[in-house]
From TrEMBL:
Transmembrane region(s): 12-30, 54-75, 129-155, 167-185, 205-225, 231-256, 263-282, 288-313
Species for this entry: Olleya namhaensis
Keywords (A to Z) from UniProt: Membrane, Transmembrane, Transmembrane helix
Name listed for the protein in its UniProt record: Lysylphosphatidylglycerol synthase TM region
Amino acid sequence: MHSSLPYKTKQFFFVLIKLSIVVGAFYFIYHKLTRTDSLDVNGFFQFLKDNKVFSIKNSVLLVFLSSLNWFIEIIKWRFLVSKLKALTFFEALEQSLGSLTASLFTPNRIGEYGAKAIYYSKPYRKRILLTNLIGNIMQMTITIVLGGIGFAFYYKTYPISIDFFKISRGILIILSVAILSIIGIKKTKYKIKGFSIKKIKDYLATLGTNYITLGLCLSFLRYAVFSFQFYYILILFGITLSYPESIVIITSLYLLASIIPTISIFDVVIKGSLAIYLFGAANVTELPVLSCILLMWLLNFALPSIFGSYYVLNFNLSKLNS
């Protein structure tokens, strides 16, 4: 159907799609800033001003950490794709930021898969989707491992009221579902993001140990950067927790937030609610916690997606067939 349309009609619809993506991204950023029920936007900016977040030193350092975060992600994407195609840094930059903008308002940023794949010709797209999935699995692995360690320390450090009877019952249910799932997987082809488990395992086997190890190292570096940025913002807001105390809560927060399906617009709401509970055990008040969550979102998602809008608007239709 696409090939049967006149060239000018294709161009018109493609421009319309690009504008829709950009307008949608800007609307979601605006919505995030003006309609966060748990935090008044004027109070938020006044709180930042009172804590000298807008000083030259702090502004430069925070933007530098966000830039470093995305620099590592761009290098990681360039490395992951290297098995299929050699990318320049700027090509990896365009694909990373452009796909961020396109995926901003999709559940669990699933739009990132299609946005990155569209930069490649049809024979490569399935492998690009799979490569992107592998990259996300690497990042999730680091989040789960460090988050699991952090949550274990959190449980030992802070008083948490846990109903062990309910947990035991929940574990029993989970084990039952897991056993039934394993039986089902053996009889059917279970898929993740459209790829069978076997295909993912086979693809991982072809990549090699060095490839996977370096990918995990880059994922760890990115995790270390944004978790330190989180801690630095807490310090700016007058939170007196030490780095080890803060990192235990931060890793626990990202672990719990990562397992809850959500759309990026609700990311602040989900993380904010979890952060209030987790930091509350350490006697940290709500305002600095919520302000930290919103500022992290603005620095690491909203700001890069604004730059990504440039690449979305300048994406050339001819790239689809190049």
